[in-house]
Design a protein that fits this description.
It is a single chain. The chain is α/β, with parallel strands linked by helices. It has 2 domains: 204 residues, Periplasmic binding protein-like II (D-Maltodextrin-Binding Protein, domain 2, 3-Layer(aba) Sandwich), CATH 3.40.190.10; 208 residues, Periplasmic binding protein-like II (D-Maltodextrin-Binding Protein, domain 2, 3-Layer(aba) Sandwich). The chain is 44% helix and 13% strand. Strand 4 and strand 5 form a beta hairpin.
């Protein structure tokens, strides 16, 4: 099974304008979806069961492929419920369609897959339901900290985590062995490995990078950076003085300036080819990657392994999330009780194991701690118990990270700013991030945010 790309999918400015303007136009006090849920009566488990027994129809917009089996199993268990699973597009395409339906007042799905980085925008835009009234607050021990934090805003819970992307180092063992390169445990060692590899084989690179917002923010996250400060419509953006950002740029600039990263875009044909022929030797990426390698890089079978993410300090144990999605319930949905019952089935109950069996990486602690999960051997990775590394990473995600409530827009202008450091070297990564900061601040001010 190929898991769709999880990071840095872009959405046009029109969506952000519509959502943010709505949010910033609200008055003080509890507002939006949170107020709606808070003002309504709590929905009990008995209420949910009654809705399932009564039956009805719900529409789910999602592109995650394992949900197809989940829908089939759900309908078999609750035969009076019909689930219409629709792929309305991946990431930005679906978000645009969703916002158009919300604005039109018709055709809004009952459940929608929304990536973690995009969820704050829908939350602040009053487009998704606070699930606290449905009992979601009791699930705080169900999920790992990274995904659980990503679906929360204040006291509200605006989605149920579907999967997660704790980061690790995927590396081509054959390439490392050939050139006698030790698996790096720190970023300093990683840079040294990049130099050694490229000197030994000028066609080979430690990794690829042409500039990607999701990867960059995840690396800053791991370094302890907190460039975004968000409190409702009060927003701070500071890459210039943020210590974590400076750690990242100081290290990664060496790779960019030294032409030690392949100038190949991820997910391109050239990228898949490089992963297969050994000219791209590592990926620092989310835990959802194994299925992509297995299905998309068959030439790499038996060659790849997984190691902990290199650390900024020797002996450290810090990681970050890179991608992942929630199932959220649009405020305009027609059948919220059935919608929540389905989301809970898919992301908390039986559906989780179905998805894990299909290749998804869970956000649930029960699956991550299960011996059957951690002990699974992956033939593609030479029989390695890959999930041991990935599950450990999930427990080491640095806390306190926030995305902008208009992160989707910010990501869309990343290549116009930071991207220049990769294209022609006319700016440094640090200068590019400052330009990205300025663009993000300007946009936030235009939409009525209070920028601190």
């Amino acid at each position: 099974m190929t898991i769709t790309r999880r990071s840095a999918l872009l959405l046009g400015a029109a969506l952000s304008v519509s959502l943010v303007t709505t949010a910033c136009g609200s008055s003080g006090g509890e507002s939006g979806a949170g107020a709606t849920a808070a003002q309504s009566a709590a929905v009990s488990d008995a209420d949910l069961q009654a809705a399932l027994d009564a039956g009805g129809s719900i529409t789910v917009w999602a592109w995650e492929p394992t949900l197809k089996q989940v829908v089939g199993d759900f309908q078999a268990k609750y035969p009076k419920v019909k689930v219409n699973l629709v792929n309305a597009g991946t990431g930005n395409d679906q978000y645009t369609a969703l916002q158009n339906a919300i604005k039109a007042g018709s055709g809004v799905p009952d459940v929608a897959q929304i990536e973690y980085y995009a969820l704050p925008q829908f939350t602040l835009g009053k487009s998704v339901t606070d699930l606290a009234a449905y009992g979601a607050g009791k699930l705080d021990a169900t999920f790992t900290p990274g995904p659980w934090n990503a679906v929360r805003s204040g006291s509200g819970i605006y989605g149920l985590p579907m999967d997660s992307g704790p980061m690790a180092l995927f590396y081509n063992k054959d390439v490392f062995d050939k050139h006698k390169i030790a698996v790096p445990t720190t970023w300093e060692e990683y840079i040294a490995a990049a130099k050694k590899l490229h000197e030994a084989d000028p066609k080979a690179y430690i990794t690829n990078d042409t500039g990607e917002a999701g990867f960059t923010t995840s690396m800053i996250w791991q370094a302890g950076g907190k460039p975004y400060q968000v409190d409702g419509t009060k927003v701070g953006v500071d890459f210039a003085a943020d210590p974590g950002t400076q750690k990242f740029t100081a290290a990664w600039q060496q790779l960019v300036s030294g032409k030690l990263v392949a100038p190949i875009s991820s997910w391109s044909d050239a990228w898949y080819k490089g992963l297969g022929d050994g000219t791209i030797a590592t990926l620092v990426i989310g835990a959802w990657m194994p299925a992509n390698l297995e299905s998309g890089v068959k030439a790499g079978a038996g060659k790849w392994r997984v190691a902990p993410m290199p650390q900024w300090e020797s002996g450290g144990k810090a990681t970050a999330e890179n991608g992942g999605s929630s199932l959220a319930i649009p405020e305009a949905g027609a059948n919220k009780k059935l919608a929540y019952a389905f989301a809970k089935y898919a992301n908390v109950d039986e559906g989780v194991q179905t998805r894990v069996d299909g290749g998804a990486f869970p956000a649930t602690t029960a699956q991550l701690n299960a011996p059957a999960f951690t002990g699974k051997e992956f033939p593609y990775f030479g029989g390695q118990k890959v999930n041991e590394v990935l599950a450990e990473s999930a427990s080491q995600v640095v806390s306190g990270w926030s995305y902008l409530p208009y992160q989707v827009y910010a990501n869309s202008v990343f290549n116009d700013t930071v991207g220049k450091a990769y294209v022609d070297g006319s700016v440094t990564l640090q200068d590019g991030l400052k330009a990205w900061q300025d663009a993000s601040v300007k946009y936030g001010q235009e939409q009525g945010f209070s920028i601190g």
